[in-house]
Amino acid sequence: MHDLPARLPGAQRNLLLKHLPEPRMLCTMRSVKLLPGTAFFTGRRSFAAGVSKEAEPLKKLVYISQSNDVFTNLALEDWLYKQGDFKNSRALLLWRNSPCVVVGRHQNPWVEANADFCAEKRIPIARRNSGGGTVYHDLGNLNCTFFTSRDEYDRKANLEMIRTAVWDTYGLDLVVNKRDDIEWRGQKVSGTAAKLGRDVAYHHCTVLVHSDRSMLQKALRTGGVKGGYESKATISVPAKTACLREAEPSARVSDVMNAIGRVFLQNPIEDKHGNTVPSEAGGYQLLNPSDYWFPGLGSTRRDLASWDWVYGKTPNFSFSRTYSLPKAHNAGNNPQEHGIASVTVTLHVTNGMVTETEIKENDSFSQTGGSDLMHISALKGQRFTEHLLDAAVQRTVSAAMNAYPRGSSGNHRAFSPGPRLTQRSLIMESERNHDPMDREYVNSILTCA
């Protein structure tokens, strides 16, 4: 009796039974037929069909994810990596995501991604398990993950397959550079990263087919560490990018997907000594990444989408900014004693949480000035964001300005609260704190001499 999922409609079950050889099993509702000897993973069952292990050639399978959710696809990739047995098989997972930013395992998302822009456009930021730099994904980009045993890991061979597939389809002469990026006329069309385990390894890469490069440029920060960050986190190397459609207007993701899958299945496999290994193509397999087929995948997805993973796994770092703040009022109503002080604030961050605040007064603050910085000191134990520090400084500024006698003609007009403190933010902050500070006074404070 054929062991098919009970959830399949009767007509579809009959159609699949007609085309599948014995023995057989399906991984999704739209799987193609399997060849004898095919080894693959359903989540609930794993099997090898009809060929003894001793005589079994190396099996090759192409998996295509039916999800466009970045966290689901990263969870699927992780599931295959942990559950798959690739001693006698090789697999290629092809997947696409809706717009998102994906940082490397050892990167700082606040450095790599434009968090404000991503939040405005509802672009999720994800952290993958592999190293390497930050990438932008959308439906115009194809992701390829090559699964092998650790001993047979060969990223250059994988990149050569992609290069060959594009040449065969569009006649475009791509080049694999020394960094294992794929380029067209010196512009990057594919970036690469990998995860190497004790027994299993995977190499994954992007292929920019017709991505929205304007969104890519806005969603990513380029040019290295910015805004006062100090860290040992991996920094992305900026590069000029290009899409295949810029070279070939007819380029489509579906065509590139088919071409890479075809080359993967048809190309002979060589071991690390250059000897050809007997292999057998198992065809394409559409995967429905769900707990039904892959038990535990939903839990993995939740972990990958959590703050603790995306931000909490950031390598330790510090973040510093210098502000010009009004001195505290210890001079009575004598406007000549008022002025500004340059203060550098540093937040030390571990696991995404502020663990220490450091305040350096670059010139003499008044005797009571330290107490006015209590808002900054209180950040310890909070989740880090750049705006967390800005808000604390705004509260400090608001408190200090309340201390000035109204109508004084001191040198507070030279006060510069820093690049992120604006008229609107100061007024909003004062209104939240029920501060009677008038808008004219805010304008005077924000006017630089």
From TrEMBL:
So which domain of life are we looking at?
Eukaryota
Q: Which GO terms describe its biological process?
A: protein lipoylation
* UniProt pathway annotation: Protein modification; protein lipoylation via exogenous pathway; protein N(6)-(lipoyl)lysine from lipoate: step 2/2
Which PROSITE patterns does the record match to this protein?
BPL_LPL_CATALYTIC
One Gene Ontology MF term: lipoyltransferase activity
Entry's Pfam families? LplA-B_cat
GO CC annotations, alphabetized? mitochondrion
InterPro entries recorded for this chain? aa-tRNA-synth_II/BPL/LPL, BPL_LPL_catalytic, LipoylTrfase_LipoateP_Ligase
Which residues belong to any copy of the BPL/LPL catalytic domain? 86-268
For this chain, the family text in UniProt reads:
Belongs to the LplA family.
Name of the protein in its database record: BPL/LPL catalytic domain-containing protein
Q: Which source organism?
A: Notodromas monacha
